[in-house]
């Protein structure tokens, strides 16, 4: 469940922020997963959320243009064309 949450968080970060937000969020996510996971080694507790967060970030980056087009189509504001 935590892996899915980390991946979805990465998607949301990829849609809204640039790459500089990825490092601190990866560290915070790895620490949170380390405290919540029971019986896993230190390497697995840090590697699993880091990889899933960064994979979700890449998915969010690739879907940024499509998401922007969907938002533009749903916008009901009047066109600025002359």
Structure write-up:
There is one protein chain. The chain is mainly α. It has one domain. It has 4 helices and no strands. It has helices at residues 2-16, 22-36, 42-62, 64-74. Helix 1 (2-16) runs parallel beside helix 3 (42-62) and helix 2 packs across helix 3 (42-62). The relative contact order is 0.20. The model has no long low-confidence stretch (mean pLDDT 82).
| Radius of gyration from the alpha-carbon trace, in angstroms | 17 Å
N- to C-terminal distance: 51 Å
Query: Sheet with the most strands?
Result: none
Give the amount of beta strand, in percent: under 5%
| Contiguous uncertain segments of 5+ residues | none
Average of the residue pLDDT scores: 82
The helix fraction, in percent, is: over 70%
Structural class: mainly alpha
| Count of separate DSSP helical elements | 4
The counted number of beta strands is 0
Order of SSEs:
HHHH
Briefly say what this structure is.
The chain is built from four helices and no strands. It is mainly α.
């Amino acid at each position: 469940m935590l892996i899915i949450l980390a991946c979805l968080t990465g998607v949301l970060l990829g849609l809204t922020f640039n790459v500089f937000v990825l490092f601190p969020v990866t560290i915070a996510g790895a620490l949170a997963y380390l405290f919540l996971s029971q019986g896993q080694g230190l390497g697995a507790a840090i590697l699993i959320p880091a990889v899933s967060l960064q994979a979700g970030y890449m998915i969010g980056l690739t879907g940024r243009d499509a998401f922007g087009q969907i938002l533009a189509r749903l916008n009901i504001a009047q066109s600025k064309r002359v």
